[in-house]
Amino acid sequence: MGFTEQRKSKQAPPGKKNKRWEEFLEEFKSEIGKRQYQVFGTLLELERESDDEVTARVPKSFHKEWLTEKHGDALNSCFEKIYTDQKNLDITVDNKEDNGLDATKEKQEEDLQNVKRSFPFARNTDLNPGYTFDNFVVGSTNEYAYTASRAVAEDPTSYNPLFIYGGVGLGKTHLLQAIGHKIKQRWEQANVKYVSAEKFTNEIIQALMEKNQKEFKYRYRSTDLFLVDDIQFLAKTDRAQEEFFHTFNELYENGKGIVLCSDRPPHEISKIEERLRNRFEMGYTVDIKPPDYETRVAILQKKIQQSGIVVPQEVINIIASNVTSNIRVLEGCLNRLTVTASLSSEEITPELARQKLSDYMDDNRQQTDKPLTIQQIQEATASQFDLSVKELKSKKRTRSIAFPRQLSMYLARELTNSSYAEIGEEFGGRDHSTVIHAENKIEEKLEESDSTVETQIRQLKNEIYS
Ligand code: ADP
Ligand code: MG
């Protein structure tokens, strides 16, 4: 069987059913199972049949790749079983559709521009390059979530949806994006969409306001793999849930993969409509718990290995035994220590570790494991920029205040589990869009590798965790 694209002689009569072809599809469906078949098997159409060859057609090369890579053997054996006259099966990519796709590409670009214009904050759906499976340390408390994520990366509809839940800083976003990376790596053309439920909500509201629902629908419903983070933030508004429900159903029915993350299991998300909750529970729900000691050590070792800095095992043990419930804080501690050591050219010794991480060693250890508050971030920022917290929250827009304000909004987003609205509220009752704007601004600078901003963020984190 060859999967090359060759010119064929006879065209199959349009609309007319071909019995043997139907039989073959039935055979193929029963061989790989209905669920798998629904992914892309339903897209197989008979293009033409000649004396020595049967040509099938699929809309995109992505579909062809999927079918041949994943089900090549099954296609082969089913075909031989039905077409006993030694014909060859060939799969081509629908040319007409391809042209169509090109046309759509322009349309896509145009739509994208429109979308960008309409939603200035709709960018940055890109995946964090560091959040890969390779960088993920597997331990007993995250192994089920990890295995399930790997399965989805193999076959996006393995569970549909996969629902991962767990506390702050335990690797949910990391796993979600790792799935996205893997799929992109294997099928470059796959349309992978990563979005937080909050951003999704904001975009819907914006689209409604600007009567731009068409672009909005286009944006999401053309997705092959839909990764939705922090679903607990999906707004209670009917329209947001309604639109999410439709997007979910449409993707699901078209055999596209859906993965959701949340800080709690579906039945505890009280804001969400029953019918949506039912959808979430339709697939497989798996949790991530705080890492055990061995995993914490392994995570620290991995980060150290990546940074190339030498840190004695004893220091690693000190950090691992004192920061127990949040991997982001674990990283923050290590970061803080290595930054301090490099700024003062000191060696990283257990003494230095104890001294610098004293907060974490105190008997108020409980407290250090508590999530950071926005106030703590504001205080650290104010002190670093010689401002008062009051100024940070004020309406003043001079650059000397506006920039630190943006930085601390950015950090509030990164380091706490607060929604845009909550952060805006803490910054003098600002609108959520102001926070999104601030986040975008800082991200832009980081994307440009602005070293001043990078240093400021590092120092701020340093201050925050001190
Ligand atoms: P969540 O989304 O659950 O709040 P994140 O995925 O943002 O948590 O993880 C917080 C930080 O910890 C990230 O920098 C992430 O790379 C890191 N992290 C989490 N779990 C692991 C792990 N198992 N191995 C390595 N790094 C991890
Ligand atoms: Mg997250």
Compute the CA-based radius of gyration.
Answer: 26 Å
The ordered H/E elements are HHEEHEHHEHEHHEHEHEHHHHHHHHHHHH
What topology, given as strand order, has the largest sheet? 5-6-7-4-8
Oligomer: single chain
Helix content: 55-70%
Distance between the termini: 64 Å
* Strand percentage: 5-15%
**Mean of the pLDDT scores?**
83
The class by helix and strand makeup works out as alpha/beta
Low-confidence stretches: 1-9, 97-104, 111-125, 361-368
Give a list of the ligands: adenosine-5'-diphosphate, magnesium ion
Keywords, separated by commas or semicolons:
8 strands, 466 residues, binds magnesium ion, alpha/beta, three-stranded mixed beta sheet, five-stranded parallel beta sheet, binds adenosine-5'-diphosphate, disordered N terminus, single chain
What does this protein structure show overall?
With 466 residues, the protein is of the alpha/beta class. 57% of the residues lie in helices and 9% in strands. It contains 22 helices and eight strands. The chain has helices spanning 19-32, 34-40, 61-82, 95-118, 143-154, 172-186, 197-209, 213-221, 238-253, 274-280, 293-307, 313-322, 327-343, 350-356, 358-361, 365-368, 374-384, 389-393, 399-415, 420-426, 432-447, 451-464, and strands spanning 45-49, 53-58, 88-93, 162-166, 192-196, 225-229, 257-262, 284-288. The protein has a five-stranded parallel β-sheet with strand order 5-6-7-4-8, with helices on both faces. Strands 1-2-3 form a three-stranded mixed β-sheet. Strand 6, helix 9 and strand 7 (257-262) form a beta-alpha-beta unit. Helix 7 crosses helix 9. The longest helix has 24 residues, at 95-118. Adenosine-5'-diphosphate binds next to helix 6 and helix 13.
